[in-house]
Amino acid sequence: MPRRGMRLDPRTKLAAMAAMAVAVALAPNLSYEALLMGLAGLFGVLLGKGRVSAAMVALYVAFLFVAHFVVYVDDVALRTMLASFSLLVRKVFACGLMAYATVATTHVNELMSALARMGVPRAVTIPLAVALRYVPAVREDWGFIKDAMRMRGISPSPVGFVRDPLRTVDCVYVPLLTSASRASDELSMAAVARGIENPVRRTCYLHIEMRAADYALLAVFLLGTVGALVVRVVA
Asked: Widest CA span of the chain, in angstroms?
């Protein structure tokens, strides 16, 4: 499948995510949070995830409306709960969007090569690589199981679980757990067969290097982090 969007070094994506996490934590006000969310949306668009970025930005705007009207709630406990939940979601949105765009556009071999160049220990890179391979495999099996059960008149939705919990667990969730266990065994065997335990430094046939676009994007995100700190200090 051809790659869509700008090609960035995996180290650039990871550094941009770290900078965004710091900037969101230091954001002095709601306006600056919205600016950072717009920056995260631009990051997703550049990586070719425009639809998801637009949906996340629209959902973020909806939470802004919630934050605006929650102060008019009479019940103190409910107002506090809604305000806290809205704040938590707003803080997580930007980083969540960037994490999704990074995972969706970064091949595992690229990430492994980049982390090896950064000197990350194998005790971290190996579980991370297996986890990134594991999630798509389980998601694919989950789609097959849902289609098969729908053909038999069994709904895998929460409504179907409420209507007939025992049958749903027996026909949907038990096969899913079995499939997940089998996928983990297969991934482990494949990793060992490919020499993942070999202590020799890994090589990658893909060319990994920092380009001008990487440095420019890093500068923008670092500027956002520094700006959040400056505005907080000045305010």
From this structure: 64
Q: What is the pLDDT of residues 11-69, one digit of tens each?
A: 899 899 999 999 988 888 888 888 999 999 999 999 988 899 999 999 888 888 877 77
Alpha helix stretches (DSSP H) within the chain: 10-26, 30-46, 50-69, 76-105, 108-117, 122-151, 158-163, 165-168, 174-193, 212-234
The C-alpha atoms of residue 151 and residue 57 are separated, in whole angstroms, by 36
Report the Cα 112 to chain-centroid distance in Å: 17
Whole-number pLDDT of residue 219: 93
Residues 6+ apart with CB under 8 A from 137: 183, 186, 187
| pTM beyond 0.85, yes or no | no
Among left, alpha and beta (phi > 0; psi -120 to 50; other), residue 153 is left
| CA-to-CA separations, 72 to 34, 60, 62, 63, 115, in angstroms, rounded | 22, 20, 16, 15, 48
Locate 192 and state its tokens: 């060992």
Which residue matches tokens 């900078």?
A: 19
Burial of residue 226 (number of CB atoms within 10 Å: 0-12, 13-18, 19+): middle
pLDDT at position 230 over 50? yes
